[in-house]
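User: Okay, second chain of the day. Same drill as before: sequence in, structure tokens out.
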Amino acid sequence: MVKALGIELLKSRRTRSFSLAAILMLVALLWNLVSVGSEFSSRQLDAVGVLFNNQTVNSLLLPIAISIFTSRIVNNERIGQTFKLQNANGRSTLKIFDSKWLLTALFFLLIAIVQTGLVTLYAYSHGVHVPLSISLLQVIGQFLASLSLIYFYLFLALVIEKQGLLLSLGFMGGFFGLVLASKTSALGSFILPFLGAGYLAPYKFSLVDSMTYTYVLDGYLRLRLLLYLLYLAIIAVVIRAMIARKGTFA
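Assistant: Same drill. Structure tokens below.
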């Protein structure tokens, strides 16, 4: 698997998939920090909650970044017609999927760690202490949300030949992720993979009255993580079974 991962890394570097996804998530980071400026200085709001909640731009840009990344690493091989060659050399479609899935998962884990680390440093630079537990929960939640999107978009990238269609689905996912972010407070909203980033955010947006709002630490976060892990397990079993049955890629 390590050798396969190295090969995938080498092939993916030629597609600029890493740089494009990283730029998008950097935009998400800067957008989040700029947009919370007035909230962050407000004494009425929890400063940590302002930074790590279910209303951030990650809900918009994470699906788009993952759809672009998976689309480019798959389309590169589709153009080169290497899938059938790999099958002929004894490499199963499931192994091809697994190696691309692992590469994408590790990259977006790194994105989650770096993004959370920079937000935490931003907080410290403004005199706000972020508990280590909150930073860890943010990384874990964003990573798990990324995994569901990776399964979804990587599978579509392998079965849909038109790259434009996949990218449009990525933008659609980002749109729904942003528009429905307020619905992620509901315990059952994990069913839509586009809502994962908001669903697993440590803090949730809450209306106090018609004129006042706040960010509240999610008391059900452990249950949400457990439900999402079960959800990921089901997705993994279903998608891997579908890929195993497909046989070969175009």
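The two ends are 23 Å apart (CA to CA).

User: Thanks, on to the next one.
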